[in-house]
Write a structure and sequence with these properties.
Blueprint (H helix, E strand, L loop, with lengths): L1 H15 L7 E7 L13 E8 L2 E8 L10 E5 L8 H7 L3 E3 L11 E3 L9 E5 L9 E2 L7 E2 H18 L8 E6 L6 H14 L7 E7 L5 H6 L1 H7 L5 H11 L11 H11 L6 H7 L1 H6 L19 E2 L6 H9 L3 E7 L7 H10 L4 E10 L2 E9 L3 E6 L6 H4 L1 H12 L5
Parallel strand pairs: 4-7, 4-10, 9-12, 10-11, 11-13, 13-16
Antiparallel strand pairs: 1-2, 2-3, 3-7, 3-8, 5-6, 14-15, 15-16
Helix pairs in contact: 3-4, 4-11, 7-8
Amino acid sequence: MLVKHSKFVCLYYMVIVMSWCTPAVSFSVINSLPGFNAPLPFKLETGYIGVDDVEFFYYFTESERNPAEDPLLLWITGGPGCSSLSGFFFEIGPLRFNMVEYNGSLPTFFLNQYAWTKVSSIIFLDAPVGTGFSYSRMPQGFKTGDMKHAISCYNFLRKWLESHPKFLTNPLYIAGDSYSGMIIPIITQAISDDIEDQGMLTLNLKGYLLGNPYTDRNFDFNSKIPYCNRMAFISDELYESAKKNCKGEYSKVEGRNQRCANDLQAISENYYCYLLKVWASDISVQEALHTRKGTIKEWVRCNRSMDYDNAVQSTLSYHLHLNKRGYRALIYSGDHDLAVPYIGTESWIKSLNLSIVDDWRPWFDDGQVGGYSRKYGNDFTFATVKGAGHTTPEYNPKECFAMFSRWISQQPL
């Protein structure tokens, strides 16, 4: 699969290389935002960058520490189709909503003291097309999928850096969470391939990081049933019956016997794991962000109706390839996530057969256990975050900031 996708990437470069010569870029510096009653104490820029027929919208925040030298992150929220405002306001950005009972007025914010922008500059990208304020100028431009999504993000990044050349030498990391686990490794490898070929503008790529990432259908989905048993969502008896009748294969529909189907139905009946839309849909907000009027019919946090091809079934080969090339990686998992259970992530990492440098141990924040970690060869780190759910920094912002700031500074967790 790696070779097949690499050939696809090379062919895609040949088709789109001419578009890089005529960049369509527009951006504005935002000094104030509705809902925050003071000038912004950080630098915020929004803008559009055209890639083929698509106009990608982004939010860029400079590091509050030393933007000239601090790392630069490209952040893509999962979904696919969830706006990067989710990451900006609920996870790692400089502002957070005041979570009060909604009374019909515009939501308000407070400063996030655990924002990752305190130690890094971050581009929050609305991608793929149809996400957030990103749109296509042509109807056919809205059709996308895993590979097109990944390569479009890479082309966006190149154009963004061409228009912001002072960040070309900053250490570069590609980051995201959830479904972005199917996209980030492809983007990272595309950059890596380009660097190896030395054919175009060289980016200072250092690595990538992923939170609770979808990675491989078999590992991710098959881990949900044992995870439910570990968390006492289902009884030992039901778990043992499902394990026996399904033979440990819970993700496959074809060939599933009736006893297995009955057990999985019983399991599904035993567990279940609004402010952002109001704010982003407000006309004064869209004017403040300098979005283009009439380009989207309705702003939604996660677009579930896009024409999207989920073509990539596994990104394991990308992780292995990038590790062999020496790129750093941080894979972190909230250990209370049922969407992508940490035991599945731990299992696929073990399947890579990387050498263990620092074995399983707790990591701490202010004297308390923040989670557990294991470090593998070529600076590949897996870390859990104790008590956190799927979008990990949303649940444990303090611990996640400690984890990120140490890792991005190349310090032990």
